Amino acid sequence: MAPLAFNSTIPIIDFAPFATGNPVAQREIADQISRACRGVGFFYVCNHGIPQALVNQVFEQMQALFALPLEKKSQLAWSDEVSNRGYVGIERERLDPSQPGDLKEAFNLGKQEAASPSALTMNRWPDDLEGFQPTLLTFWQACAEEMLRILQAFAIALDLPKDFFTPLHDEYDNTLRLLHYPPIAQLPKPGQIRAGAHSDYGSLTLLFQDDIGGLEVQTVSGEWVAAVPIPGTLLVNLGDLMQRWTNDVFRSTPHRVRVPPTEKQGQHRYSIAYFCHPNPKSAIACLPSCHSEQHPPQYPSILAGDYLLSRLQATY
């Protein structure tokens, strides 16, 4: 394997030792994750469990999806915060509600329901892209399994039983989001960028980037640093509910996708985000290892589903 690029702010964690099941190795990986989560709130994972060939297939399928005519994509349109599925057009979403709409389009998928799903919870599949649905469902499952492995490491890092988070995420109320940032065809509006500054909403996010770049992460000091694409890795960041769970011990970090410099504005950018959310009825209350007399609980208990819905309502 070729040497990985080095980022002095966002650490790179080799997850292979965790998969061995050795408690000492798992503790070491958990300690590395703990340091990242207490600091920048982002970390790269190499030697994760998602095959690169599958990731490549998803990028190919999403490029075909976003190349469809707008009329076709609009037939799959996102309709409401409860479903949170379907196609989201350019400027439809404002991740920073104080700024103009984002210069991106997206396609959201939820878990594939079993028999007789409600119309509100049905995924919207394009009918003329061969292989799209099976590829995305296979990828969905791979991300769900990786999510649980990483949550095990989080639990160890927080001095909890290894499977503490597993039953709190076993309904897989997650969102797989395909993202396309088209070339910049005209001068952006004041304050408009490709994805406005925001923090994610749930427990954690798995992010896969192409090689174009543009993602930036805000450090504790307020500086924006590039989260450069590193081949063969996935990028993990925390969401707001994990920060609430940990009483601000772990950090849900603001991030954004900037408008590229002029010489790169003709390029397409693609990324894949898998947003991991607790079960809707999971109560998010301060974990026992994250408070003390000197650091009492900072947040009231809240149901995960109620928090997610409130954040989505503010975004659209």
From TrEMBL:
Domain Fe2OG dioxygenase: 172-278
Highest taxon of source: Bacteria
Cross-referenced InterPro entries: DIOX_N, IPNS-like_FE2OG_OXY, IPNS-like_sf, Iron_ascorbate_oxido_reductase, Oxoglu/Fe-dep_dioxygenase_dom
Pfam families linked: 2OG-FeII_Oxy, DIOX_N
This protein's pathway: Antibiotic biosynthesis
Keyword Ribonucleoprotein attributed: no
Molecular function GO terms recorded: metal ion binding; oxidoreductase activity
Keywords: Iron, Metal-binding, Oxidoreductase
PANTHER family: 2-OXOGLUTARATE (2OG) AND FE(II)-DEPENDENT OXYGENASE SUPERFAMILY PROTEIN-RELATED (PTHR47990)
Similarity-based family: Belongs to the iron/ascorbate-dependent oxidoreductase family.
Protein name per the record: 2OG-Fe(II) oxygenase
UniProt organism field: Desertifilum tharense IPPAS B-1220
